[in-house]
Design brief:
Number of domains: 3
CATH class of the largest domain: Alpha Beta
Radius of gyration: 25 Å
Largest sheet: 6 strands, mixed
Helix content: 25-40%
Structural class: alpha+beta
Strand content: 15-25%
CATH superfamily of the largest domain: 2-enoyl-CoA Hydratase, Chain A, domain 1
């Protein structure tokens, strides 16, 4: 078994996403305007200001009062739990947009590569797509400001490109093959943040939906995708919430209603000063019968865990993958007088059987998260026992333990694979027009591309040259072990560029161990979807 330390490089990414997108109970907003919150005494504020005044007057060096305040606030809240946190004025709009399901801007996905803003893809339905902006375009000017080769940051780019709906912004781009810069006058509009990465029929009877978040628009997206699959003849469904950090509770419960019959408990909340609140299924769903599988992993958190927990506790479907993150706490958001905000943990989420989704806070130090959540084992030593509706044993202790564990493949160097894989998106986006396009021009239909296209050795070797130039030290035998896997990822990003973002997962899933295990298990379920005759793996 590979040591959990090998996965620590993932921690900052996963944790940041989970902290930003973790469950919000509707989010309740407490507005204080210009008044101080009543639960602070005037004396406490006097001491706070007195200390700052002394520092201002006497400290050996000059200090920025606001920066010092913000650091102190973050330190104070950081001593509570991992999910209570302070949001500055500068960050709150962007964080709220990720949950609102839309933002206002020009509608492009971009990356900064070699100090240049490069368009990854125009967002479907946005103003940039309508004007003909293309993947691979490089933004040189925004209005009259040169933005290429200036050390510009992602935040500054977003500040310049985003703005109120119906306002205008001019950009000038460099496009390979054109001598002069191309000028686009773009009217900003509301841009959707899609929750569904992919939805397709795997075969004549099996549907697949990949959910990346639970935002305000997620349920409507999901219901539409589910209806399309049902109309296409779907009899079995795989829902993939791996690496889904969560979002709105309402989105999770409404999606669960599509699978679980009315008047059943889906989840409940309870806290020290927060009395129990039950969330019940209320409406008839589109897919209450039929084989169902939910895919989870260590990046599945909050709303993802609520969905998986409800399906598991009601014996409605199978949970396959790896143990989930264990983020099941309720945050209430308080908007402060200066426009910043405090998200404070006030309660926890419990599955229908009574399991707390939240991993105990004392276990959530960075050094422990991956040793407990990423462990390829179903051992449940000293964990509390709970029972599903059919009296199956399930376990507490935080997170959702899958019915079928798919262990990590440790036959290759995972860290090396991850480092090189991370080079693939920018490599494909940068070289698509000049090097990649000629390889795939002949494939006008996706199914033909999926069945017949193979990434050339020439293109793969160019990727390796790029990776090597970035000080990725590797041995030849290590590369031979991961070459086929890397080529699949290259093919997936090429499909995304050529056919659209929804075609990424149909390529990746062809070799994905968890997805392939799901296909194996779902095909063995009866048409009713009953899992009661399934022989589950031992948990002892």
């Amino acid at each position: 078994m590979t040591s959990s330390k090998n996965y620590k490089f993932l921690f900052p990414i996963i944790t940041a996403l989970i902290l930003i997108l973790g469950i919000q109970l509707g989010i309740k907003i407490a507005e204080y305007g210009n008044e101080k919150p009543s639960f602070f005494s005037t004396h406490e504020f006097d001491i706070w200001d007195e200390i700052l005044n002394v520092i201002d007057a006497k400290y050996i060096e000059g200090v920025d009062r606001n920066t010092l305040k913000e650091k102190t606030i973050r330190e104070m809240i950081g001593n509570l739990d991992p999910h209570s946190f302070y949001i500055s004025q500068q960050d709150i709009k962007q964080i709220n947009e990720s949950l609102s399901g839309n933002f206002e801007g020009i509608g492009v996905e971009f990356q900064i590569l070699n100090d240049t803003i490069q368009v990854i893809t125009p967002i479907t339905g946005g103003p940039s797509e309508a004007l003909g902006i293309q993947a691979g375009d490089k933004i040189v000017y925004i209005e009259d400001s040169l933005v290429a080769g200036t050390g510009i940051t992602n935040r500054v780019v977003m500040e310049k490109l985003r703005g109120e709906r119906n306002t205008n912004v001019q950009i000038k781009i460099y496009r390979p093959g054109f001598t002069d810069l191309l000028t686009f006058d773009i009217t900003r509009d509301k841009i959707p943040i899609n929750s569904i990465e992919s939805s397709y029929m795997v075969d004549n009877e099996t549907g697949y939906i990949k959910l990346s978040r639970f935002s305000a628009n997620t349920y409507e997206e999901f219901a539409g995708a589910l209806n399309n699959l049902v109309m296409s003849g779907m009899q079995r469904l795989i829902v993939d919430v791996r690496q889904n950090p969560g979002g709105y509770l309402t989105a999770a419960t409404k999606i669960a209603e599509e699978f679980i019959e009315p008047r059943r408990l889906l989840v409940y909340t309870e806290g020290r000063t927060y009395r129990r609140n039950n969330y019940m299924s209320r409406s008839i769903g589109q897919f209450e019968n039929g084989p169902l599988v939910i895919l989870i992993d260590e990046g599945s958190a909050s709303a993802s865990e609520i969905l998986a927990g409800a399906v598991q506790d009601w014996d409605r479907g199978l949970i396959i993958g790896r143990k989930s993150f264990g983020k099941g706490s309720v945050q209430e958001q308080y908007t402060l007088s200066d426009g910043s905000a405090l998200r404070l943990t006030i309660a926890k989420y419990y599955t229908p059987s009574g399991r707390s989704i939240q991993k105990p806070f004392k276990k959530m130090a960075e050094e422990n998260i991956f040793s407990e959540n990423s462990e390829d084992t179903l051992q449940v030593v000293d964990q509390q026992v709970f029972y599903t509706s059919a009296n199956r044993v399930v376990y507490g202790g935080g997170g959702i333990t899958p019915d079928f564990l798919v262990e990590r493949d440790t036959s290759f160097n995972l860290q090396l694979f991850a480092r090189i894989r991370n080079e693939i998106p920018s490599f494909i986006y940068t070289n698509y027009t000049t090097k990649v396009k000629t390889e795939v021009d002949a494939y006008t239909e996706f199914n033909s591309f999926l069945s017949n296209y193979t990434v050339s050795d020439k293109l793969f070797n160019e990727l390796m040259e790029r990776a090597s130039a970035k000080n990725n030290k590797f041995k030849e035998n290590e590369i031979s072990e991961i070459e086929d896997r890397l080529k699949v990822w290259m093919k997936a990003y090429i499909a995304r560029q050529k056919f659209g973002r929804e075609y990424f997962y149909p390529v990746i899933n062809t070799t994905d161990e968890i997805f392939l295990r799901a296909l194996e298990e779902i095909n063995d379920l009866p048409p009713s979807g009953s899992i009661l005759d399934v022989q589950f793996e031992s948990l002892n």
